[in-house]
Amino acid sequence: MRSRLVPAVIVAVTIAFVFSILSLTHPGRAEACSCQGPGPACAELFLSTVFVGKVTKVVSNRGSDTTTFEVVETLNSTFPLPKTVTITHGNDGNVCGIAFTQGKTYVVYSGGTSATTLGVGACTNTHRYSKDDPDVKLAHAKVTRTTALVEGRAVVSQGSDSKPLAGVEVRAVGTKISARSNAAGAFTLEVPPGAYTLEVLNQDLRIWQDRKVQFNVPSPAACAHPIVMVSYDGRVEGTVTDTAGAPVVGLEVHAIAKREGDRHWRLSAKTDATGHYLIHEVPAGTFLVGVSLPDYGGTSPQSPHPTTYYPGTPSLAKAKALATKQAGLVGSIDFKVPAPTKVVTLSGTVRGKSGAPLPGVGVTIIPAGRNRSTGGSTDAKGSYSMQELAGEDVVIRACAGSPQVCVEDKRKTTTDAVIDLQLP
Prior knowledge:
Helix content: under 10%
């Protein structure tokens, strides 16, 4: 697992990456909203309901329009379109709305599962129709090839930086179709029509945060432009056992940079049935490995073993640091952990002033002196059930309403307990 707070530059890169991926299925104009500009028609035409339509009526409401089109021609659709189509859509460009002019003809890129559920916005390839319209030409073109063209780009993420990367070998999963990126990070694949997921074949590279890179090319005339964001795959592995030498299963093991200011990512992996763990995407540096670390809330119901650092100490000062490289494996980081703290279940019903059970009420368990809490909501019967460690001084708080009204119960957890709460 690789998550947690990230630097602003990484956030910006991630957002750009997400919008790049979204543009493969919803490319469009960037008016005042945060969407990337239109991509090529071949990347969208075969994935949308696309028609040439003349606007016959526009009814404006606050923040939205209801536009009726006379369908001149259907360019692509998985279901038949009637002679007229009416679409309600946002009209504010600040929130990706789009406006149409009565009497004008458009090439409309829309999404939906039927003619009555179509939607359209600025982040599509919708545009005013013109003579010799290239999108219409594409829809009419006779396809002579049998494979679709995929032109992608490989980008490496390193700390707060990202850049094109040469030599990344990508392959369409389940096929033998692969390509290697050039100095600009570009690669080209030719695939039969279909939906695909890309994988990276380089041993020391990994798709960033294990996020799937997928695309769909329903026709040989379709195209795709996936961005494959990778990271160098520094790895740490080992085995966690209890004091008797038995494997500890399902325990999250963390790798954290020794210098606190370098802890930008949450790097972790869970132990398997043999107690083995393998943490991916660990950058070059000096790292500590352990379980139930204070940075992530310490001992908790999800990680009930006491805080333990490699090579098996509760003391940060006695933890052994590891030197990691940009890529490659640091292995045999094995250690033992003490017996887990007992986990208890706290449950009950939240009622209102009248005594009636209240569904949807937020309930939070807050242990004293911990930088964590557990939250949830009551079910349809007003009931809640959550876990906490035995021996904790906790506050159980239920809140509802606007303005918010809360009720609390304070106690020390010893065994499973039923704690009913009544809001004033």
